[in-house]
From TrEMBL:
This is Cinnamoyl-CoA reductase. It comes from Coptis chinensis. Gene3D superfamilies: NAD(P)-binding Rossmann-like Domain. Keywords: Oxidoreductase. The lineage of its organism: Eukaryota, Viridiplantae, Streptophyta, Embryophyta, Tracheophyta. GO terms for molecular function: oxidoreductase activity, acting on the CH-OH group of donors, NAD or NADP as acceptor. InterPro entries: NAD(P)-bd_dom_sf (IPR036291), NAD(P)_dehydrat-like (IPR050425).
Length: 102
């Protein structure tokens, strides 16, 4: 697996951002809706710390890239997002309930 930069956002935060944009008359143009910009190694380390009993990639190769995106414009309208840990907990719980994860 390549240690690429990934953008993460909770679908509930996306829905809330859409409602916010529809409700704010000053909203115009394009908005970036991404809560976290994180490299895969850091993401996997986070998952390992929360869920150590799952299988994770053994080899991660470095990948040099830069990504300069910001949600500042959306946050200025009042958008707030969930903690990454909350999103991961809720996602894993949902996957477990659906039988996707053992």
């Amino acid at each position: 697996m390549e240690n690429r930069i990934r953008l993460f956002v909770d679908v509930r935060d996306v829905a809330e951002s859409l409602l916010l944009l529809y409700e704010k008359p000053e909203a115009h143009g394009r908005y970036i809706c991404s809560s976290y910009t994180i490299r895969m190694r850091d993401f996997i380390d986070k998952l390992k710390s929360m869920y150590p009993n799952y299988n994770y990639p053994k080899q991660i190769t470095e990948f040099d890239e830069n990504l300069d995106l910001t949600t500042e414009k959306l946050q200025k309208l009042g958008w707030r997002y969930r903690a990454l840990e909350e999103t991961l907990e809720d996602s894993v719980k949902s996957y477990q309930e659906k039988g996707i994860l053992d």
